[in-house]
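User: Teach me something about this protein's shape.
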Amino acid sequence: VQLVESGGGSVQPGGSLRLSCAASGFTFSSYAMSWYRQAPGKERELVADISNAGGSRNYAYSVKGRFTISRDNAKNTVYLQMNSLKPEDTAVYYCNANSMVNDYWGQGTQVTVSS
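Assistant: First, the predicted structure itself:
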């Protein structure tokens, strides 16, 4: 099982980034997918999640209206489009795959928002 995040980096406030998470080794379309983040000295928090077929999406209040989660089951990939980035969005972003039985995590990708 692998979850490989990409697309992180450094951006100025107000900028955009698109994170990707490529999955392999399990039946991607059977899993709900989530993005979490962890800032230095803080607990890991849920940013957004999407149901296995993509019909249901939920967002943390702090990112609602700025971030969009999506998935492509044909490509076994989940995305997080992040717009209007703020310094408080700085964190390591993790991809998570969850079924009622299994829970998988990626290694994380750093997002830094700074002027």
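Now, about its shape. The first strand starts at residue 2 and ends at 6. The radius of gyration is 13 Å. If you'd like, I can walk through any region in more detail.
User: That's plenty for now, thanks!
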